[in-house]
Amino acid sequence: MPELPEVTAIADYVDGRAAGLPIRRIDVASLSVLKTADPPITALAGRTVERVWRIGKYLVFTTVPGPGAAPEADGEIHLVIHLSRAGWLRWSQNLSQTPPRPGGKGPIALRVHCGLPGEGFDVTEAGTQKRLAVWVARTAAGTDHIPDVDKIASLGPDALALSEPEFAATISAATGRIKNVLTDQRVIAGIGNAYSDEILHTAKMSPFASVKTLSDTALADLYSVMRSVLLDAIARLEGQEVATMKSEKRSGLQVHGRTGMPCPVCGDTVREVSFADRSFQYCPTCQTGGRILADRRMSRLLK
């Protein structure tokens, strides 16, 4: 799943290419991705992309009326995209002018033509679990709030916007295991499964540690590590083509997705805890004092 570093990098990449360009048309290949109907997605045609930015793990394309628009034309209208677990964006200078077939089996969910013919991007989703979501929403009058996207309204503070005292207060007010708290977008926005694994590994903290047991020193260390891991990932992705960002992300991970491989810090075997539709990885030596965490799925298989 694209998380804060990847969404930041995608937003910067596309902003550098699309900002100031007119949207000529939008082709919808998968109607199920559209989560709003007013304004319709067709309302974006003829508007200009003002900027591309990020809220949590959401991509936001802010558009304004194009040249020659009527005085009563809507102000800012946003195209908001959540790439979910298997979504991605592909920028092209040679975008097909033939609309993708609606309901087809291909990965394309949405095609946005902007700028000159051939310029624009596809929003794609791999696999059979279709969770990619798209909203078209206005800005609330006199604010920067996007009220029509309820999931954005429920987001906690951005991971990189928190000061150390704010981070400590936010974590301390939560309950449960630190792994779950870090990935709860209502608590802190932007961190997902992969980077929470990396943060906890670097901080030498068990994913199952209760937030109520964390000392002030542990919270301060965790805050420092969180910023370091996220900012280092953003730096690695800076200047990358969107097409290479996935592999660049994988190359920088120390434990996530490395089950059975040696920990690059201590050499112990990276272990996994599996759930119904996801898993996380950790190093026993670095994080749990050598203890192997219970994996209910594996326990059932061994019976």
From TrEMBL:
High-level lineage: Bacteria, Bacillati, Actinomycetota, Actinomycetes, Mycobacteriales
Keywords: DNA damage, DNA repair, DNA-binding, Glycosidase, Hydrolase, Lyase, Metal-binding, Multifunctional enzyme, Zinc, Zinc-finger
The protein's required cofactors: Zn(2+)
This protein's record includes keyword Lipid metabolism: no
SUPFAM superfamilies: Glucocorticoid receptor-like (DNA-binding domain) (SSF57716), N-terminal domain of MutM-like DNA repair proteins (SSF81624), S13-like H2TH domain (SSF46946)
Substrates-to-products reaction catalysed: Hydrolysis of DNA containing ring-opened 7-methylguanine residues, releasing 2,6-diamino-4-hydroxy-5-(N-methyl)formamidopyrimidine; 2'-deoxyribonucleotide-(2'-deoxyribose 5'-phosphate)-2'-deoxyribonucleotide-DNA = a 3'-end 2'-deoxyribonucleotide-(2,3-dehydro-2,3-deoxyribose 5'-phosphate)-DNA + a 5'-end 5'-phospho-2'-deoxyribonucleoside-DNA + H(+)
Domain FPG-type positions: 254-288
Alphabetical list of Gene3D superfamilies matching this protein: 1.10.8.50, MutM-like, N-terminal
Residues of the Formamidopyrimidine-DNA glycosylase catalytic domain: 2-104
Protein name (record): Formamidopyrimidine-DNA glycosylase
Family: Belongs to the FPG family.
PANTHER family the record matches: FORMAMIDOPYRIMIDINE-DNA GLYCOSYLASE (PTHR22993)
GO biological process assignments: base-excision repair
Molecular function as annotated in GO: 8-oxo-7,8-dihydroguanine DNA N-glycosylase activity; class I DNA-(apurinic or apyrimidinic site) endonuclease activity; damaged DNA binding; zinc ion binding
Keyword Isomerase: no
